Each structure stands twice: as structure tokens, then as C-alpha cells.
Amino acid sequence: MIPSRALVLLAIVPLGLAVATLVDRTLLLPMLAADAGIALWAAIDALLARRPLVTVKRHAPAVLSIGRPNLITLEIRSLSRRKLSIEVADDLFDHAESDDLPVKLELPPRERAAARYHVRPTRRGAHAIGDHHVRYLSPFGLWIRQVTVPAETPVKVYPDVQAVRAFELMARQDRDPAALRASRKRGGESEFERLREYRRGDEFRSIDWKATARQKKIISREYQLESNQNLLFLLDAGRLMTAQTQGLSLFDHALNASLMLSHVAARGGDRVGLLAFADGIKSYAPPVSGAGAAKHVLSAGYDLYPELVETNYGAAFQHVGLRVRKRSLIVLFTQVVDDVAAGELLRLMRGVMPRHLPLMVLLRDVEIDALVEGGDVDPYTRGAAAELSSFRDRLVRDLKNHGALVLDVAPGQLTGQLINRYLEIKARHLL
What we know:
Blueprint: E1 2-3, H1 5-20, H2 28-48, E2 54-59, E3 63-65, E4 70-78, E5 84-90, E6 96-97, E7 103-107, E8 112-121, E9 125-129, E10 132-137, E11 143-149, E12 153-158, H3 161-172, E13 192-197, H4 209-215, E14 219-223, E15 230-236, E16 244-245, E17 248-249, H5 250-267, E18 271-277, E19 281-288, H6 293-301, H7 313-323, E20 328-334, H8 339-352, E21 357-363, H9 366-373, H10 379-401, E22 405-409, H11 414-427
Parallel strand pairs: 3-12, 15-18, 15-20, 20-21, 21-22
Antiparallel strand pairs: 1-11, 2-4, 4-8, 5-7, 5-10, 6-8, 9-12, 10-11, 13-14, 16-17, 18-19
Helix pairs in contact: 1-2, 5-6, 5-11, 7-8, 8-10, 9-10
């Protein structure tokens, strides 16, 4: 029981009388009577509020997406004969947050109501949402009754599966979002797939005039990208990938982008796999094709976390050389800040290029970019930021000069730009 504002205000009355007794001793008995009356009233109110008057049942998805607001629904039932004003809060697991708690609602007598809130996890893995904590006023309003309703809902936090679901829904509805035009972006005109009604943005040369004459509406030819090619993600899980931006580590941004692109590539008929590494190999999922390819990548990276260790690029590329025989698009997600690591990457990229096509994805530090662009910072800080930015530009230029493909991108723009680069590689038949 928690004293309400009404009980605190009532307690002021005997307090005032107690002060007045310093002047007039005849007010002693009224003060004691007020104390006794308020105490008796509060005791009766607490006794009446002893029995819990609400039940709560939680409905939560078994799989939550990291970095996304995930909907949780609470089914609340009143056992009271009076109207209740209720506040409900849930025990969230570590690395989860919600701006919607506690939820507040008015519950009519003996009625049910649904309350909703969103939880945003920031760490993957197996977790559980814990007990409910419910607050409402006692019958006379002197106490705030707090009831703990035991509950435990196990959930698994995966990479951003909501983006995959949204893409799949759009694909089924035959809609083409600009950043995710993977199932409809087409390659060479020798690989015909189907005829369909003309859409705004189609090239005029793709119009099939014979079919247009027959159907009496404009019909376009659609071509498909070459399929059954290999795509292997190399995820750096070393110390530099632990850096946080937009509430997620760089490793999580890379994993989210890998999941989305693996779904896009598998839907187009390609084989996808994943290799995660830090000071050694952490996980390897060889490239597979089919409807379960994205889940294959998801399972391989679901419970991986970046570590505060130095990255061993040599171990990763040696593993690729031993295990991946078919020519593949190797997408390496990493962060480089020193000449030693940059020199090793240049050497390894040159070594892998005769057999495979490497695409190096460098995740930009948006805070350093902001310091370079200006703002209220001292010249020394801006100079250090400019030096780091210059080093990065030089690394990108050297990699491109040696024939490697490079994507230098901010984490928030990673998924869309990575998919567009993949489509460009496919359309140009570089693989």
C-alpha cells in the first residue's frame, strides 16, 4: 500500500491542530480524535483494498526485432464492482526499453480492456518479459494499491526480421519499394522472365508491342538477374564493431543488412552464407539456396556478439580459401582505423580477387563526420577528425585502385545502399 495524495492532505489536519496546541491546550483532545479517526478510516480502507481486483494476461510475439518497436498487448480484467483507474508496468529484460510504460486506462466494473505498449530491444538473444505491476486506488481513495501479478513471457530477439516481413509483403502485393527493388530489378535482356502490365518507371524499350496490341493495354517484358550465384557475408566481430550508433552496435547494423540482403538474394535464386570472425572464427554457415536460406543466415548470427579483441582478418580469408570453392561475392563488413589493419586488408583483398569478387563495406563514424563538417568544436578536435577522415578516404581509394569494390556508408543507410550495390553487381555481370 502506498499513501495517496488524499491521505497526505488529511494528515495535515491533525498536524495543524498539533501546532495549535502550543497556543491552546484545549485543542489536544480534538487533535487526538482527528488522529484516531483518520487512522481508523485509513485502516478500514486498507482492509477493503486487500483483495486484488485485477487480472492481467500478456500477448507478445515469440520473436522480437532488435532496434524496432515491437507491440506487446495486455488483456486486463476487472473483478471490482466499481470503476478503476489503472496503471500497469511490466518488468522488461536488460537491454530493452519502452516509452509507453506505465500504460494508463479506465476500467469499467467487471469489464475487460486491452492495453498496448511497444518494447525496443537493443541486444539479441533469449530473454523474458517479467511480472506485471498494477496500481489503482482503494475504495475510499486513501491508498494506492500496488499488485504484482507474476508472469514470465520468454522472447527471442532476432536481427531486424520486421524489415524482411515488410519486404515480403510488398513482394506478394507486387509492389516495388525504391530501396528494395530486388525481386523486380532485372538484368540482361537475354534472360526473359515474364510479361506484365507496364508500370511507371519501366524503360520504353522493354515494351512488347505485339502483346500490347493483343491486350489493348501497354505490356512490358520483364527480365531476371542471373541466379544460382554465391553470396557470402564476412562479419567482423572485433572490438571496433562494438561501437554504438542509433542505439545499435555496428555489428548489429551489419547483421541486419546481411539478413535483408540474404532474403533478397535467396528470393532471386542465389545461394547465401555467413562467416563471423573476431580473433578467430566464431560461426560459419556455408552458402545455401531456397526459401530457408535467410533463416540459415539468421540462425548462424542470432546469438553472436562483438568482442573486445583484435580482428584476425587472415583467419577469415584463410577459412574462405579452404571452404569456398565456387566463385562468390564476398561482402566484408568491418571498421578500419590504423595503417597496419589497412595494409593487411589490401594484401588479403589482392589475394582473394582472382577466385572471388570482394565487396568491402566500411561503416562510417557519423560523429567524426559531424566534427569534420563543423560545429562548436575546438580546432584540435576538428583537425584530429579530419586526419581520420583523410585516412579513410585514402584507404577507400587504395582498395579501389587494386580492383576491390568498396561501399563507404553510414550505418543508418547501410541496408538500402548495400542492396542497390548488389543489384548493380548482378546487372553488370561482375560476378
